[in-house]
Amino acid sequence: RPSLDDVGYALAELDVAMRGIDPQSKAAACVQKDRGWMLYDQGEIERGLLDLTRAYELLRVHDDAPQRMITAGRLAAAYASAREFEQAEQLLNETISYFMASGAVSRLATAYDRLGRAFVAQSKWPEAHDAFEQMRYRATLIGDTVAAAYAHIRLCGVHIEQDVLIAAERDCAIAERTLAAASNYDAEERRILHAYRGRIQLARGNM
Question: pTM higher than 0.90 for the full model?
Answer without folding.
Answer: no
